[in-house]
Amino acid sequence: MNIETALKNAMTIEGALGAALVDYGSGMALGAIGGGRDLDLEVAAAGNTEVVRAKLRTLASLQLDDEIEDILITLKAQYHIIRLLKTPGGQLFLYLVLDRERANLALARFNLRRIEGEISL
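The structure assignment produced for this chain is given below.
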């Protein structure tokens, strides 16, 4: 599946408010869907790039032989899921924002993992 289809599939997850595919090497969104005035996905992509970079630096400093699957940020009204993709030479993550009242977090994580497995870049 291509980027557009992957993002459309992410938006079918119950409670989805916005989704983006982000290059954390540059901080740029390669594609985005949803969002709006209260959720600027371009700003979120750049900000969450710093979150990913900081966590990767921390893993390296701790000399942990492990990798990040996803990062979860919980707000009072939203969940923000950052799912790092395993792509050859890629520095990409899927970013999904969910309405906390309507979302099933476990199911959303499962669906992002499925989308990751089907995406082709």
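Interim note for the steering committee: The first strand starts at residue 16 and ends at 23. The two ends are 8 Å apart (CA to CA).
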